[in-house]
């Protein structure tokens, strides 16, 4: 009998889902305040964003920093473990670009792989 607690299942359970990849991608670029995710990820709801950030924080990929200001300011950034995921994000981005080209899928030009953004 094969265990379902395998590396690939752990990976998919941790970073799978509709928005986690984009959240991690944007956090790989810089720390982000909660409200600043909405223009970056149109269509994400407050509840879903909050849930996804909490899950990523619980899983040790994202850290939440609360600044004692009025009004309070919250910023999210990648942990060291989250930073270790950046090369995987780049590979996923490159594969997505290759797949889009092979399947003639029109991409949103706003998102670039990390190494592409540095070249531009």
TrEMBL record:
It holds the Pfam family HxlR. GO terms for molecular function: DNA binding. Keywords: DNA-binding, Transcription, Transcription regulation. It comes from the Bacteria. The keyword Chloroplast does not apply. SUPFAM superfamilies: Winged helix' DNA-binding domain. Residues 6-104 form the HTH hxlR-type domain. This is HTH-type transcriptional regulator YkvN. It comes from Paenibacillus albidus.
């Amino acid at each position: 009998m094969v265990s379902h607690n395998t590396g690939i299942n752990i990976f998919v359970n941790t970073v799978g889902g509709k928005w986690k990849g984009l959240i991690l991608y944007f956090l790989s670029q810089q720390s982000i305040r909660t409200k600043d995710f909405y223009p970056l990820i149109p269509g994400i709801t407050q509840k879903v964003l909050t849930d996804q950030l909490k899950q990523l924080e619980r899983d040790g990929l994202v850290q939440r920093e609360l600044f004692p200001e009025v009004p309070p300011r919250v910023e999210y950034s990648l942990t060291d473990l989250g930073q270790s995921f950046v090369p995987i994000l780049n590979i996923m981005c490159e594969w997505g670009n290759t797949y889009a080209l092979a399947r003639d899928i029109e991409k949103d030009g706003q998102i670039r792989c990390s190494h592409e953004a540095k070249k531009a």
